[in-house]
Amino acid sequence: MQGFIQQVLNALQVGSVYALIALGYTMVYGIIRLINFAHGDIFMVSTYVAFFVGTALASYLLGLSGLLLFVLTLIASMFATSLLAVLIERFAYKPLRYAPRVSAVITALGVGLFLENFTLATIGPDPRFLPRFFTVQTYTVGGVAFSNIQMIIIVVSALVMLVLDTVVRRTMVGMAMRAVSWDKFTAPLMGVPVDRIISITFAIGASIAAVGGCLYGMVYTIDPYMGIRIGWWAFISAVVGGIGNIRGAMLGGYILGFVEIFTPVILPASSYRDFVAFSILLMLLIFRPYGILGRPVAQKV
Amino acid sequence: RPRGPETIKIGLNVELTGSIPVVGASCKNAAELAVEEVNNAGGLEVGGRKYKIELLIEDNEDKKESAAAAAQKLNAAGVLVMIGPNASRNAIPAAEVAEANKMPMISPWSTNPKTTLDAATGQPKKYVMRACFIDDFQGVVAAKFAITELKVQKPAVLYAVDSEYNKGIAEIFKKTMEESGVPVVAFESYTTGDKDFSAQLTKIIQAGADSLFLPNYYTEVPLQVQQAHKLGFKGVIFGSDSWGAVELIDLCGADCEGYFFTTHYAPDIATPKAQAFIKAYEAKYGKIPDDVAALTYDAFGLAFQAIQAAGKIDREAVNQALHNIARYEGVTGVMQFKGTGDPVKSAVVLQIKGGKFVYYTTAQP
Amino acid sequence: MTTDDVVLSVQDLHVSYGVIRALKGISFEVRRGEIVTLIGANGAGKSTTLRAISRLVPIQQGTIVFEGVDLRNIPPHEVTAMGISHVPEGRGIFANLTVQENLKLATWGKKDQREIEQAYERVFSLFPRLKERRNQLAGTLSGGEQQMLAVARALMRGGRLMLLDEPSMGLAPVLVREIFDVLREINAAGTTILLVEQNARQALKLAHRGYVLETGTIVLSGTSQELMDNPRVKEAYLGG
Amino acid sequence: MPLLQIRGLTHYFGGLRAVHNFNLDLEPGELVGIIGPNGAGKTTVFNLITGVYRPTAGEILFNGHSLVGKRPDQIIAMGIARTFQTIRLFKDLSVLDNVRIAHFAQTSYGVMDALFRLPRYRREEAEIRERAMELLDLMGLADQANWVASSLPYGLQRRLEIARALATEPRLLLLDEPAAGMNPGEITELMDLIQWIRRQFNLTIILIEHQMRVVMGICERIKVMDFGETIAEGTPTEVQNNPRVIEAYLGEEAIV
Amino acid sequence: MKERRSVVDNALRPVRALYVAAVRPIQEAYNALPASVRRWTMPAVLLLGFLLSLAAPSLINLYWQQVLIYVGINIILAASLNLINGYMGEFSVGHAGFMAVGAYVASIMTVWVFPRMGLKEAVPYLFPLALTIGGLAAGLTGLVVAIPSFRTRGDYLAIVTLAWNMIVKSVLENLDVVGGPRGFMGMQKLTNLPWVFVWVVVTIYLLRNLIYSNLGRGILSIREDEIASSLVSVDTRRVKIVAFVISSFFAGVAGGLFAHIIQFIDPRTFSILKSTDVLVMVYLGGIGSLGGSILGASIYTILMELLRPLQVWRWVVGPLLLVLLMIFRPRGIMGLREWGFLIPKEERPAFVDALREQVRQKREPAAVPAGASE
Ligand SMILES: Nc1ncnc2c1ncn2[C@@H]1O[C@H](COP(=O)(O)OP(=O)(O)OP(=O)(O)O)[C@@H](O)[C@H]1O
Ligand SMILES: Nc1ncnc2c1ncn2[C@@H]1O[C@H](COP(=O)(O)OP(=O)(O)OP(=O)(O)O)[C@@H](O)[C@H]1O
Ligand SMILES: [Mg+2]
Ligand SMILES: [Mg+2]
Fold it and tell me: SS3 for B120?
């Protein structure tokens, strides 16, 4: 039982990170139907920004409390990453806005490769940790071990997602995002500034990735290629949940977290993990062809 | 005027991009250092003449087809010897190319037995060598060390299932353990690139393991160790030569204190040659060389020695000379070749102590 | 009438889609309080004209002046803020938003809550069907319901000039009449209307003046009565 | 025996009742119109017949065979064809290809025949090509055979849609608002066309339309739907004078 | 954007003019040849190509031979993926999964099965058979993706294909009989330029035949509008099965060729990265175009080889070039266009025009309806 609870906590931690990245995928997809394969790499960049800013801050502002440093780093990373995402959108995707959908997808693949290898070529391949802004404290309750950072990850992610969900569902900007996603030709007739809405979407997606990145960097190492795997998994999360759907992305992220953690637990040999995890995915899509919360695009014949 | 080329071309077929750029970077660093040293000394003296070394570097992207193409390209460029690739998955196809073109090849780091064997006949390849020992040896050494020195009763293993290196060592380790009557209580795996191992570690802890063998790369080991501690693992942890980079200590911090790993050489009891290499490397790149760097450096050392012994710039002669080297004293210890491309080397066990790698014991083959 | 009364003036407008020249230099004007209709066969360039006014397509040449302001360098979302609402061809409703959300989005940039409330009331009294369905996803509405929503949305946006692109397409006769009644009403209430219609008879009945467009040029213009009496118009657009 | 028999056809979208207890007996050669306010469920009836949706309840018999549960392509292959309320051509393909694709059910050669261009493939392809060209010629589209469908003017696109439907060799043709977006002149042409293909291809037709001129002009029998229910049925004159129809659909003034 | 594109266009204008000036006369001269001569052009060109591939060892060095072999294999991969992604309009990202099946099965044939049947000497002659069996095995697994595609489309299907790719990789990692992660070897170096040439020609020829059949048009119609296509009698399930099976067949063949040039395969070779490589080639060359796939695979493969001296920066510059190309040519180099010689004669406009005349003359003009007559 305690083993089970332990694994649930583990799964929530992993799932939270996936969910945060998946949100960026889903938002960008939602609005311009673009599978932004560069998103995982934007996430990677966010961790590097956090690394450099955090290290610099830590050495210049010795006196400050760790939490404050962390928040400053987070804000810097969110800002820089959003800027990067908006620039990428402006220069790489915008020219393709009215082109066939897949050309932008291939461009995104290219941008992703560029970011990865540019980081590799300039910063080098060595893995790093973010500076320790505060000490990791591990608590054991009834045989279940959990740490303060783990709790922060789970809680902060959940909060970020709830806020975002409310924004998209309830606010005018959210509505405009959905409208643009359906028909970017008509949206301006309602007074909606399409370019700005798209930029905002990219910025939000990237800042959420940065939140994910900073939290992630506290527990895992960072390296130039880290975005690839997590990018794919987040993409899968987004699709499993129903791509374009905010709650779907969260749900998908948690599901993937659980699948990833629990398959090796249940299996006698964990080497079959990927096999089982992806078979589950395949089955799931056979029975829910549009993801869990997704529905077929309302289309009249 | 003397006839013949002004320089000696040596090729480096290396994983600069792809999934193990860290290996590629170390390899490239050591290669450039080795060549620079020779060139700064005026070149390599062969048959009474000094030749500058020209290093041709090709990125193989950690892809087989690219490793083979790079080997072809180096061959076409007329390199005398090709060093690399490092990962066996790339070294094997490149070795096929080397063998077919009679181009001597030395892999610094490929530990898969198949690299130096002809698949059809099972006989050793004629033009392919390596500078490291093979996985099997290390797996056995680690198991024996664990039983005799660490006195483990309930060992567990966590390894990358999709990597021939990790899986190879892990399996030999398990087999040796079981043959010695010490059952492995948990044999868990993950996929390269994973960053969270809590599921497997929780399982290992629940299996009551008293020790954990991590034959994994130093980029991943710190996470594994830290997560194990976070989940409450108290036993001893040990690993293989892929731990051998100072970054491990940087990344792992106090968590790795007191742990062991088997490797090629021990910096603190190293020979003068090794000391000189470590110093030069540190001066040039600002860090202690890892095992790939040391092995690459030795691969170059082997090549240089063979070229000098051959006395002429000729692949056949150099290959012959390479195979005639019975004993080579490199920075990673003494290598003995017994007619095949695989060196017989001793392994050392190092312990992490006070943020340093400290010599613990030596294991003979 | 004085030139002050000219709400919209289009001069020598050229528009192309790649190699297709959709408009080859048309000029016309719309005066305050008028209903003006553009009629013409399929592909004549009627929708293109409206799109050019809303700045949805690039202008090759010519000017479009709305209330004295040249629209040439104004992005589409600002054009509508200046007081032009547009019911696009094919309705252009947001299928993934509910009816209510479609309407709400149309109030983008409007601050006055009371005004918005009134607009809702007006729209729901004109189209009770939409009120019934306000929480339904707009994409699952029937064709006619969608058309109502499209007009309703433009009404929500308000503005002094309304561009309508075939509002009667696919509508039941009773609804066609209703829509035309609504147009008459909002015109009476002060909105100037530029109407594109296939249903030329109905359109000319409603409009004060009209222009006939053929393959990108204006070939005829006049008051509705003049056009209805024109044998060429009768033959081609009124079904003989 | 009726060609098409629909009994108690009912369809719900979630809680929304789109069609309720719809019945229809269609004799071979008839031309029946369906009218009704927007959202009455007309298009849904077509979608149910052609297998796009599966009815919540009810039975559809075509030539005595049940259509319920069959896939659209199977139903089309049985001899039913349709056009769409909004044109759905294969936009990037040529006019000829649009029509050839509709011969799919009549192609019997297999993958191997196609891959290796075996005689059977050559024979059937030649036939299809010829039949498609003849059809295009009949429909006055032969000169545009090589055009990309999207480059056709709107009127011709409608015509191509009908040609494509005819290529499936239907006995029953379902036309969903073919006159939408046409001006009165074009509508006259369309009416001629419908009458003509009906004779030429020996068709039974169901027509959905809001243009009263078309419905009243060429249909022999009309069904009127509202909120999924059938509210009236009869000849054009009967329907036109039915007070319920006037209230729900036509409005007070007589329409053109 | 507009201006930038025209800048590029202007810059390219002289190039284009030069090209036209150079090619036009040749084209005209060629068209002036009698039809009986022209009929033999294609066979002659193919024969010449084959002879050149035989003579390659004495013309170019081993490195470029190797690169050309990769080009050929990549053409097969790209063209077969184009069938799904370009012609059918799906977004498959798991092509390497099928390639893996073909590679392993074909290798098992040449390394184990044939020798154990006592055919050790004959292995080089049985190579085409091994490739075909590998292709068939891959084709069979194509069903794994085809069947979900009945209900799942677009990005959801993309995940199905991705999952498939991962499953294959994971299964291979756990199959110790074929070496697990240590890989499988022992294949002879059977793949050479002539073989690759032949397989490329066969692949392109068969794919072309399929595309220009009514089955192929069915594939296109799914891309255009799946619902409409089933409503004009296209059996979309059958079409999808055909498309996926054939596409994976050729991916399998490419895998077999790959295995017998590299002589060593392991699961990692067929990771999702390999799939994305092929994706890039397809879209670079242009969707819905076999010519595009040929160009895309060639340009991508050769360009990345030419960039080799850049080492790490190669993967910075390469992607940048890709992004620029996509921006200036969003549909890829040949999107939805085709080289004339890849279109069967009877599908060319001139032929259709002739056919129209033929049909006209056969029919009496009286049947034209009143309204339809102008
Ligand atoms: N997005 C587009 N791309 C290319 N050509 C277009 C586009 N939109 C319209 N056209 C072409 O421009 C011309 C004018 O089209 P427009 O839509 O303005 O005609 P219209 O008078 O509104 O016709 P309809 O009655 O069919 O709506 C036509 O030839 C049309 O084919
Ligand atoms: N896929 C769907 N999901 C939910 N509701 C639907 C769907 N399709 C249609 N409806 C609803 O079913 C009702 C009937 O729609 P249908 O399209 O059959 O109307 P119609 O009679 O063809 O109207 P119109 O004349 O406007 O085309 C409408 O209220 C519509 O909103
Ligand atoms: Mg129009
Ligand atoms: Mg309808």
Answer: coil
| Gap between the Cα atoms of A118 and A111, Å rounded | 10
- Please state the domain count of chain A: 1
Compute the count of residue pairs across chains A and D with CB atoms less than 8 Å apart.
6
CATH architecture of the domain formed by E37-343: Orthogonal Bundle (1.10)
Residue A107 domain flag: yes
For atom 11 of ligand 1, the residue with the nearest CA is C22
Does the beta carbon of C137 lie under 8 angstroms from any beta carbon of chain D? no
Q: How far is the CA of B149 from the centre of ligand 3 (A)?
A: 86
Which other chains touch chain B, taking contact as 3+ CB pairs less than 8 Å apart?
A, E
Query: Could you read off the pLDDT of D34-72 as tens digits, one per residue?
Result: 999 888 999 999 999 999 999 999 999 999 999 999 999
Could you tell me if C79 and C157 are in contact, meaning their C-beta atoms sit under 8 angstroms apart? no
Cβ <8 Å between A189 and C108? no
Q: Which two tokens stand for residue D247?
A: 């209230």
Instruction: Say if ligand 2 is within 6 A of residue C123 CB.
Output: no
Structure tokens at C161: 């000039």
For residue A196, give the CATH number of its domain.
1.10.3470
Q: Mutate which of C24, C48, C51, C217 to test ligand 1's pocket (most atoms within 8 Å of Cβ)?
A: C48
The structural domains of chain D, with segments of one domain joined by +, span 1-79+170-256, 91-168
Say what angle helices E272-285 and A101-123 make with each other, to 10 degrees: 120
What is the residue whose two structure tokens read 């590299």? E262
Tell me how far apart the alpha carbons of residues B312 and E335 are, in angstroms, rounded to a whole number.
56
Q: What is the SS3 assignment for chain E?
A: CHHHHHHHHHHHHHHHHHHHHHHHHHHHHHHHCCHHHHCCHHHHHHHHHHHHHHHHHHHCCHHHHHHHHHHHHHHHHHHHHHHHHHHCCCCCCCHHHHHHHHHHHHHHHHHHHHHHCCCHHHHHHHHHHHHHHHHHHHHHHHHHHHCHHHCCCHHHHHHHHHHHHHHHHHHHHHCHHHCHHHCEECCCCCCCHHHHHHHHHHHHHHHHHHHCCHHHHHHHHHHHCHHHHHCCCCCHHHHHHHHHHHHHHHHHHHHHHHHHHHCEECHHHHCHHHHHHHHHHHHHHCCCCHHHHHHHHHHHHHHHHHCHHHHHHHHHHHHHHHHHHHHHCCCCCCCCCCCHHHCCHHHCHHHHHHHHHHHHHHCCHHHCCCHHHC
**Which residues on adjacent β-strands are paired with residue C84?**
C161
> What is the band of E61 on the pLDDT scale with cuts at 50, 70, 90?
very high
- Is the Cβ atom of C140 under 6 angstroms away from ligand 2? yes
C61-89 mean pLDDT: 92
Chains in contact with D, where contact means 3 or more Cβ–Cβ distances below 8 Å, are A, C, E
Instruction: For A254-268, write each residue's pLDDT tens digit.
Output: 999 998 888 888 887
pLDDT in tens, C97-131: 999 999 999 999 888 899 899 989 988 988 888 89
Band (E373; pLDDT cuts 50, 70, 90): very low
Task: Report helix, strand and coil shares of chain C as percent, to nearest 5.
Answer: 40, 30, 30
Confidence of residue C189 (pLDDT cuts 50, 70, 90): confident
Residue E363 phi, psi dihedral angles, 5° rounding = -105, 140
> How far apart (Å, rounded) are the C-alpha atoms in residues E24 and C39?
46
Interface touch E85/A102, C-beta < 8 Å: yes
How many other C-beta atoms can be found within 10 angstroms of the C-beta atom of residue E183?
22
Domain containing A190: what range? Answer: 2-287
Residue A63 lies in a domain: yes
In whole angstroms, what is the distance from residue E289 CA to residue E333 CA? Answer: 10
CATH of domain D1-79+170-256: 3.40.50.300
Q: Closest Cα of chain E to A113: distance in Å?
A: 6
Burial code of D247-256, b = ≥16 C-beta within 10 A, e = fewer? Answer: ebbbbeeebe
